[in-house]
Every structure is written in C-alpha cells, then in structure tokens.
C-alpha cells in the first residue's frame, strides 16, 4: 500500500465519516464506490500525512460544491462549431487502452494554441474531460477488466513546441493547480515523445525541482516513442503521432487523420459530447447560439513544486526573448 498504511486509511476514513451530508454526496462522485483507493490517492499526494490529506480532500469537496462540478457534465460548450474550435486548439483525446486496461490519453502539448476561446472555456473543457474519465471511462474499464482501474497513462507530444507557447503559462498554471488539488495521482506515467531542443533545455531546469515521486512518473522517450509504447499497448491504441516510422508532427495526414484522437469527429469526443448533451437535454439550436462558459474558481494553495517550476519557466522565457 506504500505511504498509505492500513492505520492511516482507517483514520482517514473515520474523519470522512464525520463530514456534512453535502460533502458526502459529492464525495460519492469522486470515489465511485472505491473509497479506500480514493483515500490512498490523497494520502500519497500528502506524503502519507492523514491531517494534510484530510484537509486536501475536504477542501476539494468544498470546491466541487461551490463550483457545481457535480453538474459540469450537463453543461456542454455550444454550439458544436464553437466547441470544435476549442477541440482544435486544446489537443487532447483517448487513443485506446494499455494491455493492463488503463486508458491512454494523448496530449498535443507542442501544438495546442489555446487561442479560440477564453481561458474559462479551456478550464471548463479540461474539467469535463477529467470528470468523464473518472465517472464514465474508468468505471467502464474497471467493469470490463474485472479489476479496479483508477488511473491512466498520458502520452505528451512535444512536436512544434516553441518557447512562445509558454506565454500560456497562466492557463497552464490554472489547469495544473486544478489537477494537483482535486485530481491527485490519477496518472501512472507521463510519456514524453517527439522532443525538440527547446524541451530538452527546459527539462534540464525543471527536473531537479521535481519531487522524487513526480520524476519517477516521467519518461522521455526517443523519437516518437513507438517501440517503447508498444511494450505496454497494442498498435491500434498508439496515439496517431506515434505511428510513423520517424518523429512526425501531431497533425495527421492521409489515413492517420481517421485516428486523430484530438478531433471532435473521433469516437471519444463524439461519445463525450453526446453524453453531455444528453445530460443537459440540449439539442443543437436552429439559430447560432453560444452558452456562456462555466467560471470555475481556481483553488489557492497549489503545489509549491509547480509554482517553482512556473517561475523558472517564466524566467527562461524572459532570457530567450532578450536580444
């Protein structure tokens, strides 16, 4: 069980049994029937300290209540054409599953522009994917595999990465803070592929700042990572940018566009969007309309580790912009 001893789990569970009913209700959406495994995640995020883990979880549950996170899947971004713009500029999708049954999230870190909508839409979209993962994808994988599946792997494509992309530091900080405080320990491994020189330069600065448990999750693979990734997943589950013989870009070409899991036309996004529209009862309006974004308050007190990384990256941007 690692950091989460049975005694710590028991203490944590006893504390959670005492929270108010509204917190208990939203906690059900978090643990999906797997209370011990959820408590273990928060304990691991706080180095096994029950008091700190309890505060972290209660703060997260209050954040969910205050921002309507339990209802966020019933608030699709509309109309579809506008949402397509979000998807085209916030590159993320599910390409398949590992042989152990873990969903494989592909992320176009290098080519995401985040320039088709306000920051609130991107935060909303990110949280909706998190919630869909935790409430639909992972429970379905658990049932299919006959064992608990509570985490995923992520493959980050750095094709096209430029230092100018770090001008999105505010948005990236917001998203990482949301994840750090409310969705801890949901990723087993981060595979980084198609790395250009600029990433290598930043990684040399960032790596020494990371906690050991975080560094152990990051694997920088050679080229597009295809050979290494095929050790844990079958070819059809490879993200499209890992299927070429060389280290290609994230933009699919030819038959690869069919399997481009970033696209709104990909089955993952079609199923997600249909699910949200079904929950909301919203049909595509006859006249163009746009629903306002969901403004989610970003909790304070993010991981100091991440704050230090962002400061370092900002200073690197400043250095790179000097003549």
Describe the overall structure.
By secondary structure, the chain is of the alpha/beta class. The protein folds into 2 domains: 6-70 and 294-321, no CATH class; 73-280, 3-Layer(aba) Sandwich (Phosphatidylinositol Transfer Protein Sec14p). The protein is 47% helix and 8% strand. The protein is built from 12 helices and 5 strands. The longest helix is centred in the middle third of the chain and has 27 residues, at 119-145. Residues 246-258 have low confidence and may be disordered. Residues 283-323 are annotated as: Disordered. It comes from Lactuca saligna (Willowleaf lettuce). Residues 307-323 have a biased composition (Basic and acidic residues). Pfam families: CRAL_TRIO (PF00650), CRAL_TRIO_N (PF03765).
What is this structure's SSE topology?
Blueprint: H1 6-16, H2 21-31, H3 35-45, H4 50-67, H5 80-89, E1 92-97, E2 103-107, H6 119-145, E3 152-157, H7 169-182, E4 187-193, H8 197-206, H9 212-215, E5 218-220, H10 226-229, H11 267-280, H12 304-321
Parallel strand pairs: 2-3, 3-4, 4-5
Antiparallel strand pairs: 1-2
Helix pairs in contact: 1-3, 1-4, 2-4, 3-4, 6-7, 7-12
Domain CRAL-TRIO: 79-239
Region (Disordered): 283-323
InterPro entries: CRAL-TRIO_dom, CRAL-TRIO_dom_sf, CRAL/TRIO_N_dom, CRAL/TRIO_N_dom_sf
Biggest sheet: strands, sense, closure?
5 strands, mixed
The CATH topology of the largest domain: Phosphatidylinositol Transfer Protein Sec14p
What distance lies between the first and last C-alpha atoms, to the nearest angstrom? 52 Å
Number of DSSP strands?
5
